[in-house]
Amino acid sequence: MSAALAFDLLLVALLLLAALRAMTTPRLGQALLAFVVFGLLMALAWVRLDAPDIALAEAAVGAGLSGVLLFDAWRALRGEPPDEASTAEHTR
Predict the structure, then answer these.
(1) 59-43-56 Cα angle (round to 5)
(2) Which regions in the chain score pLDDT beneath 70?
(3) DSSP secondary structure string, 16-63?
(4) pTM of the full predicted structure?
(5) 3-class SS of residue 91
(6) If 0-12 CB within 10 Å is exposed, 13-18 middle and 19+ buried, where does residue 31 land?
(7) How far apart are CA 83 and CA 87, in angstroms?
(8) Which of 18, 48, 60, 68 could make a disulfide contact with 38, Cβ separation 3.0–4.6 Å?
(9) By three-state DSSP, how is residue 83 classified?
(10) DSSP code of 66?
(11) pLDDT at 77
């Protein structure tokens, strides 16, 4: 077994584990973290498939932007106050 094949099999196993964890965990924070990890692993999978443009989009939108928005929504659902920087912008 070559090193590249072993890495690809490990990547597939980690992708399946992250997807399963994101769907089945009872804690929302852990599910969101697993979703972000899944997005980063998907970006790595796209790099392995020689599609760097899709990998960059997946990392930026799939893991980055979506992760930030989901964690912000989760914070709002928990009733935590917004950051000071965002409240300063809204009071101007």
Answers:
(1) 50
(2) 82-92
(3) HHHHHHHHH-S-HHHHHHHHHHHHHHHHHHHHHTT-HHHHHHIIIIII
(4) 0.79
(5) coil
(6) middle
(7) 6
(8) 18
(9) coil
(10) H
(11) 87
